[in-house]
Amino acid sequence: MMKKSFERRSLSALLVVLSTLTLTLSGCSSKKAEDSGTVANEQTESASQEDGSQAEDAQAQSSTEDLSKIVVGIPQDIDSMDPHMATSAGSREVLFNVFEGLVKPDSDGNLLPAVASDYTISDDGKVYTFTLRDGVKFHDGSEVTAEDVKYSIERNAGTDGTDPLISAFSNIESVEIADEKTIVMTLKESNTEFLAYMTVAIIPASNTDTEGNPIGTGPYKFVSRSPQENIVLESFDDYWGEKAYIKDVTLKIEANSDSVVMDLEGGSIDMYARVTSNQVSQLSDNFAVYEGTMNLVQALYLNNNVEPFNNELVRQALCYAIDPQTIMDFVSDGKGVEIGSSMFPSFGKYFDASLNDTYNQDIDKAKELLAEAGYPNGFDFTITVPSNYTQHVDTAQVLVEEFKEIGVNATIQEVEWNSWLSDVYTNREFESTVIGVDASTLTAYALLSRFRSDASNNFINFNNADYDAAFDAAVSATDDAEKVEKYKECEKILSESAANVYIQDLPEFVVLNKKFTGYTFYPLYAQDFAKIKPAQ
Amino acid sequence: MRYIMKKVLSMALTLFVVSICVFFAFSLIPGDPVTRMFGTQATPELIEQYRQKMGLNDPLIVRYFRWFTSFIQGDFGTSYDYKVPVAGMIAEKIPITLTLAIMSFVMMVIISIPIGIYTAKHENGIADHILTVINQIIMAIPPFFSGIIMTFIFGIVFKLFKPGGFVSYTKDFWGFIEYLILPAVAIALPKAAMATKLLRGSVIDEAAKDYTRTAYSRGNTTNGVLYLHVLKNAMIPVITFMGMALADMVAGSIVIEQVFGIPGISRILLTSINNRDYPVVETIIMGIATMVLVINLLVDIIYRIIDPRIEVED
């Protein structure tokens, strides 16, 4: 009996081993097939940018499909449907379609009149006068009134005694209704850039449930929402401007970034922003890949208050130790734009490309500086990285290797996003972190104000009297040329005092099914669905 | 009856302890709903103001009892993240996860019972050997892996399935069921393999016992003995396992919902933990805990029905 069962076992075991082997072998062969497939895809991908003939092929295959609908994959759910409470970049870029401000950015970074048809700014940069556009309607059909505008601005300024939702709005002295079509906003201190903040969403004063029933004036209106599932938008027929081409937009939450390619190929989503270069290489030629930049300042942000980063020489040594191009090669196949200060190229006149060369990789120089600073044998430190941002984690890994060259040992600590926000960003309990800092508005102010020594969001504790002086001069300057010059001086100080180890503005790959066309990049976070149209 | 009363009481106590654990565990991890709310736009003043407004500055114990008193009154609170009542938000998602769990359970039963009996009946036959091997392999494949493989094969190669094409039951019920078939298979397979193995072993064991010989000697046929006598006893360990498996399927759906992009309870649970949405997390965990306890109770009751000799201690 015993013997018999042993025999049975060994027979079964043999079969197990055999079939496992078969599985492993077939696994290997399919891996090979995948590799060769990747190469082929890359070729078509590089060719796919300009030609429309392939697009037509794809079109022919799917001509029966309904092109009045598009499903857009988004990596996480919107954090709030209330435009004044939505803070994450992912939320703002989607709400861009539902809400508008008095002015609205275009894809070149100009501010165009939107809810206001016209505006004037007094010469001293203190009094802003807006004229409301005739016939701008909210999604509920009511017309935008001066009261709605006053309400929307004051809600952000915290005039009701609460703290302002947008800290820059604490500069607002008053918002007056001059007549039913004219609004006069007065600032406490002159600021000629303040217009950029007037992109703040105008919402009806009468709406008591902005979260559950968001009403705006944008080209798309809110239809429904299911937590962690989707958000449904529909084009707004009474939109004052150029109407959207596609009627129904569904934003589908793609919680699992690994399934993005399969979902695109399988047809359950038509568009996805910010895929990795690795994912791009897996896509078939039914998809067009639009390449832009993410419009953020990716850097190794150093806590300027902790040892040894309170020493400028140490910070400079780290800057000399790294090569942004190497990082880009590893992280995103060499794509991305090098930056040398807290400014990225989309900002045009404010961007100073010469700062990219403040530090060029020079290992000997870095070691010299370290010795001078009193660390001839290097030191150990921790890089805290939010684990949900693969590109930042990858960057940190390259940095660790580069720092080894100068004898500095960095350890990566991956934390979850909320822990990052709380420990690193809010409580400033960190040594260094890799993150991308974006601009909430199209102003140099938005990027540079955080480095003023007393700024509440100065999470790196940068403290430099020259910087503060240059920054204040830039803000109060009413002459544009002088303003640009002062802001550039700020950038130069950040670069030369090595506030952070600046790396790059990350590349952004947007995938769009070739059934559709017209994806447009903006110099700040915005996904403009109204510009997307059927390919035919 | 007294037994059930006692059991219900101990269930309530367990739930109470679970609720405390969850609540206090949250106080150990960094970040709170307000940091998440303002992200990188946060200022210390704003954080303070909203913490105050949302009552997050109160001592933990005060917050716990505030939550607890409203919870037992049936008020599950409002989601910090979605600003909607938790009850409604979860009610919308329960059918999704429950349907998935039930489908997997049914598949597990349909697959494992016939195969288990068949292999036991034909112990050491060729079919038995082959099935045992397949069983071993399936048992070793985790659901998320088989899930990805199946999505690839049926979705990309054969185009029988639309990856990520989940539709809500409110819009298209049959489309919804259709989408859940593959995820249910992925969850059910390893469980079915285990149940099969267990049933086979159990039937073989029971068949070797004295009462079976007696049953044969009374002139019963093989099938008669098997279905009337052996199976009844052999099912007892299998039912325990299946009860546990049902509870496990809800837990297992955390991974599978992620792999297949199903916006069910588990997805909500996961994101709510990330977003520190306490009311939602508490409610879902309490729900899952209650379910596990109820299943345990049901298993106990079924035991008694199958085999009245089993004395559940009083």
Task: Please describe what this structure looks like.
The complex is a heterodimer of chains A (536) and B (314). In chain A, the strands form five sheets. A seven-stranded mixed beta sheet of chain A has the order 8-9-10-1-11-19-12. A six-stranded mixed beta sheet of chain A has the order 14-18-13-17-15-16. Chain A has a four-stranded antiparallel beta sheet with strand order 4-5-7-6, covered by helices on one side. Chain A has three domains: 8-30 and 295-505, Roll (Dipeptide-binding Protein, domain 3), CATH 3.10.105; 39-79 and 218-293 and 509-534, Periplasmic binding protein-like II (D-Maltodextrin-Binding Protein, domain 2), CATH 3.40.190; 99-199, Dipeptide-binding Protein, Domain 1 (Dipeptide-binding Protein, domain 1, Alpha-Beta Complex), CATH 3.90.76.10. Chain A is globular and about 70 Å long. The model of chain A is unreliable at 1-9 and 20-63 (pLDDT under 50). Chain A has helices at residues 2-48, 53-61, 89-95, 146-157, 260-266, 277-282, 312-321, 324-332, 363-372, 390-404, 417-426, 444-448, 465-476, 480-496, and strands spanning 69-74, 103-105, 111-113, 116-121, 127-132, 172-179, 182-187, 220-226, 230-235, 248-253, 271-275, 287-293, 296-302, 337-338, 380-386, 409-415, 432-438, 500-505, 507-513, 516-517, 533-534. Chain A has 536 residues and is of the alpha+beta class. The radius of gyration of chain B is 24 Å and the shape is globular. The termini of chain B are close together. Chain B has helices spanning 2-28, 33-38, 44-53, 60-72, 86-121, 126-140, 143-157, 173-207, 210-217, 222-260, 265-274, 278-306. Chain B folds into two domains: 2-91, no CATH class; 94-263, Orthogonal Bundle (MetI-like fold), CATH 1.10.3720. Chain B is an all-alpha fold and 314 residues long. The longest helix of chain B is centred in the last third of the chain and has 39 residues, at 222-260. Chains A and B meet through α1, α5 and α11 of A and α2, α3, α5, α6 and α7 of B.
